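Record type: ASSEMBLY
Status: queued
Input:
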Amino acid sequence: MMETNYTFDFSTALADRRIPNPILTASGTAGSGKELSQFFPLSDIGAVVTKSIMLKPRSGRATPRMAETPSGMLNSIGLQGPGIDIFLENDIPWLVSQGARIIVSIAGETVEDYAVLARKLRAVPGITALEVNISCPNVENRGQVFACNPTTAREAISAVRRNIGGELPIFAKLSPDVTDIVSIATEVVDAGADGLALINTILGMVIDTNTMFPRLSQKTGGLSGPAIRPVAVRAIYQVHAALPNVPIIGMGGVASGRDAFELVLAGASAISVGTATFGNPTAAISIKEELENILIEKGFATFHQAIGFAHREEI
Amino acid sequence: MEMPTINSRAQQMDAEVISNKRLGAYNHIVLAVNEIATYAKPGNFVAISVGGAGSSMVLRRAFAIYRAQIRPDGQGVMELVVAPHGNGSKWLASREPGESVNIVAPLGTAFGIPTEPVRALLIGGGYGSAPLFALAENLKTKGCRVDMVLGASTAAKIYAPLEGKRSVNSMTLTTDDGSAGTQGRVSDVLPSVIEQNQIEIIYSCGPMAMLSAITDIANRFGVMHQCSVEESMACGIGVCMTCVLPVEGRDGITRMVRTCIEGPVMDGSKVTWSKSREIPDGVWGK
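Status: finished
Output:
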């Protein structure tokens, strides 16, 4: 229990799982938690969303992988990681030992990859939910971004649903780089997603005007940070309006409690903190404290009451 | 269960600027810090938030720590040498005494100090010389002979404070334009310096091309080479995965490793310098 005098309920639900507060890390900005545990206890946040893990070890892309942009950054990591087997052997037991709640993010190159990853995770204890990353922009061609096409988005989510069994909630992570995000969201929910994670980075590019070449080795990268927050607010608002009962993990440029509150008002049931952690290792903690204070000041008795509050009818 | 040992002494804190002085092309900045001053070792770096509240610069900037110590009055101080070339470093270089900056330090690996007295050569490119002076003092207290080679494009970009010069046995300068020392690059004078002084270990800090050239020469002479690499980073604490280099591990396998966690000080002979901007064939997970 929180050591406070008031009875504010900060807990939130991710499908049928309840977590004590709605602040999460964003996948790919917190590794598997070890590095951040130097700066705060991982059990203090709602959950650690791990860096998207693939079937096999992956070197990622060549450098330069990063370019700072106005109020944001481009990254082009390319899903570097140890692969699911080493991840399950090392990272999950360590996170469990820290008392962290865990949301595992998975990414595949094929529908079959998603199916195999889901089978490997099905019986692993200690996991709160799965985030299915079908929207990483740093792949060789746009055809590989499952979330850019309703059919491929459905196939990937359906493969996870069939193989994970009925127990573990799955959240489909979608790209805002589509004409109609509501139609993609409807499709993946129909395919068995319990919730959605909105939004992944936006495909962008920087050209160095001194060298007159693209700044990143692979030319394009994913834009993140406060620059994309209005895109996240719009996507969450549109999807929540269409699917009000589907929980949304909201993310996109949240750097303060005020920013997190904005995404909650749009319809987010939880908030992932990503790029802000690069600038401030304790960003998730300060955002959590600021958000709780804002909600209390605004007169909410529970966090739940604030979800989608911007959709209410004007009086 | 294994406990985290990464950056286990690192702290995040607001540090007041005690002084900020222009020295040639650089700014020498002294920050008031707490006990982290005793943990910081030559080679470690500090990640500093720039631009102030609401800044559009969302990423920290990494700087090698020039020196860190507890003063006789008990005040911990951390000194930096900053080259104001981008918007972030310009912001930092314009801080006035009394203002505060948010720092995370000490981060990364430090230069390894030999247990026996050895003949060491320290090589710095531009402001890369900064962490080498505290290293020189450490090596001197271990009874090492310390020679130094500093290079830069022009004389104003060589950072060599008077008190730093006192801690070395010899100092060789090179500049691209010949405005100080020998005209040319540090790699031009290295073979003779290594031979004359019978160098056993090289420590270096500077641009990647310089570190790569030093590695070739060190390998040719069979001299160990610890270098501090400078790869652009977003976080400095090991979570963003942007600052990677292909580096061979103890198991003989080359991986893309984070220079903020497994560096910045690395064994130069293990870095695939010729393909540092690629994912070389044979790298784990390619």
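Annotation: Chain B is about 20% helix and 35% strand.
Annotation: Residues 11-107 of chain B form a domain with the Elongation Factor Tu (Ef-tu); domain 3 fold (CATH 2.40.30.10).
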